[in-house]
Design goal:
heterodimer; A: about 140 residues; VC0802-like; Alpha-Beta Plaits; 5 helices; 7 strands; about 35% strand; B: about 425 residues; Rossmann fold; GMP Synthetase, Chain A, domain 3; nine-stranded mixed beta sheet; 22 strands
Chain lengths: ~140, ~425
């Protein structure tokens, strides 16, 4: 599998909600590898990459959050100027729309695109290293 | 099944005669024993003896919630408290609750009334009935409980809350019928689905819902998710509790137990009677209640009445499903808004479980209406553009249905307050300014 599971959580824009999510995960011994937040004035979407996505999903659902799993692509970027640009170019030149992108620690970047399978195939044809869920889980 | 064919299929003329006879007795009973009623009658210059035909009912004074509240706790009792074997009270959102008492005879009548409603909904002595109503002072739990026992069903008095335990018992005990509020039924479906329960494989087959309005769309949603037949029933603490009216298998209105309750529909503004089939406020008179007889009680529930004989064979009149209350309605910038309109709109947008709340505020002298919608898994997306589009879609549809500009706010599940399983649908903060 070249896809990595991302958890998205619906968060009301109230103080303490993000901290409650992270606390619940921490107490369940789940390690957050990376995250991003999109927000409006009223609410936000917290996107999480964790070592144990299935467990994390249960923990958050039981804590009353609305949670969703999405298959996203994780790329290990070449660590030099233009590294991110070279990867994005492959996808966008093929006409695949990028919904969002954010970085994890180091050279890992998460991409969510309109046609995931097609983007994976495009990237696999090139000298781009895709990171697997196993690697994320192993840390 | 028709539990009491004598009373439920009585020819109209005989039913009218029975009602008149019982009404005359009930009016004298209340007049002679409750000073508050005597004062109301005297103020209008009427005496129980003036009641010679059912049509004379219009001459009697109405009873409103305030009459019951002002006489707290026992001022509307027609018997000494020693003869009362049970007390119940309304939830009383503001100030003192309304207290009602039941004699042994009243409890017997009550169980019989709810037993009829359960039978009409298709419950038999073979059923295992799980009670999801609150017990305690609330009439919903106890009222249905005794009716179910009277039928001979196996009653599981689980009460409200602890959804995980409800689901466990439902599976382990082979529950076939559930009794509660429609919003709790939906919540049960949500939690059950999340826990991976396949309701189509459970023996659960029928639901009896009451305590809050349940529109056709909400009913359809509950039916398809829980794989049951959902029936509506109606009652209120002030006149007894559940057991006033309920749907039969035809589901074309709720049959009123007319040998115990006399139903009228009046203009909510003027109190003038409305014709058959016309919408208005339901007014109820108890015909057989001993401890707390109530005459012409203004329910604030909007409905219409149908006296045509039902396909099920019952001759008792049917009241249309109550969709809204006169005091539920909020007027926003001159526009009448009912929660049911918001509910229908949300349900029409596929995938939304209708947990919502209407909040009306006044900002710089202008009414502002906000609808808070809980984000269920079905509508949640990790892509912000989808969420913004969804929010826009909800507000566009609400704007066009209501003719008002509405601010839609997406909120987390569980945000909308629920008390005793009832969701609080309208919060009007305008008086605060």
């Amino acid at each position: 599998m070249s896809e990595v599971i991302q958890l998205s959580v619906f968060i009301a824009n109230e103080s303490g909600r993000v901290s409650e999510v992270t606390k619940a995960l921490g107490e369940a011994n789940i390690n957050i590898r990376g995250f991003s937040v999109s927000d409006t004035a009223d609410y936000g979407i917290l996107r999480l990459i964790v070592d144990k996505p299935a467990e994390a999903h249960e923990v958050l659902k039981n804590a009353g959050f609305t949670v969703k799993d999405t298959g996203v692509i994780c790329v290990d970027l070449p660590d030099h100027p233009g590294g991110l640009a070279s990867v994005l170019k492959i996808v966008s030149e093929a006409g695949v729309n990028i919904e969002y992108v954010y970085s994890l620690i180091g050279t890992y970047v998460i991409l969510n695109v309109a046609q995931t399978e097609r983007a994976v195939a495009l990237l696999k044809d090139r000298p781009v290293r895709l990171v697997t869920q196993e690697e994320i889980s192993a840390g | 099944m028709i539990r009491d064919p004598e009373h439920e299929t009585m020819p109209r003329a005989a039913l009218d005669a029975l009602q008149l006879q019982r009404l005359q007795r009930a009016v004298s009973w209340a007049y002679e024993r409750i000073p508050h009623y005597r004062a109301l009658f005297d103020a209008r210059g009427v005496k129980p003896g003036d009641l010679r035909a059912l049509g004379d009912l219009e001459r009697l004074p109405f009873t409103d919630k305030l009459d019951l509240r002002d006489t707290y706790p026992f001022g509307m009792f027609a018997v000494p408290v020693e003869r009362v074997v049970r007390l119940h009270s309304s939830s009383g959102t503001t100030g003192k609750p309304i207290v009602v008492g039941y004699t042994k005879g009243d409890l017997d009548t009550w169980a019989e009334c709810t037993a009829r409603i359960a039978s009409a909904a298709g419950v038999t002595d073979k059923d295992r009935v799980q009670m999801a109503f609150l017990y305690g002072m609330f009439t919903g739990g106890w009222g249905m409980h005794y009716g179910m026992e009277r039928i001979g069903a196996t009653v599981i008095p689980a009460g409200s809350g602890n959804t995980e335990r409800h689901l466990m018992m439902m599976r382990d005990f082979g529950t076939t019928a559930i009794v509660g509020t429609p919003s709790y039924a939906l919540y049960l479906a949500e939690v059950g689905e999340r826990a991976g329960i396949d309701f189509s494989r459970l023996p659960l087959r029928v639901g009896l819902f009451g305590g809050e309005p349940c529109g056709e769309r909400l009913r359809a949603e509950i039916e398809s998710r829980l794989h049951i037949t959902a029936t509506d029933n109606y009652g209120l603490t002030e006149v007894m509790g559940p057991g006033v009216a309920g749907e039969c298998e035809c589901r074309c209105g709720l049959h009123v137990n007319e040998d115990h309750f006399l139903a009228e529909v009046v203009d909510p503004e003027t109190g003038e009677p409305r014709g058959e089939g016309e919408e208005g406020e339901l007014v109820l008179t108890t015909l057989t209640r001993e401890a707390c007889p109530v005459l012409r009680y203004r329910t604030h529930d909007l409905t219409s009445l149908d006296r045509s004989v039902c396909a099920c064979g019952r001759t008792t009149l049917r009241m249309r499903k109550v969709r809204h209350r006169t005091d539920d309605m909020v007027i926003v910038r001159g526009v009448n808004v009912f929660p049911s309109q918001v509910e229908d709109t949300l349900l029409a947008i596929e995938g939304i479980a209708p947990h919502y709340q209407i909040v009306v505020e006044r900002e710089h002298g202008m009414d502002r209406m906000e609808v808070r919608v809980e984000v269920a898994e079905e509508v949640f997306s990790d892509v912000m553009a989808d969420m913004v589009a969804f929010e826009g879609n909800v507000s566009d549809r609400l704007n066009s249905v209501l003719g008002l500009s509405v601010k839609v706010t997406l909120v987390e599940p569980g945000t909308v307050e629920r008390t005793a399983g009832k969701a609080r649908r309208v919060v009007d903060d305008r008086s605060a300014e």
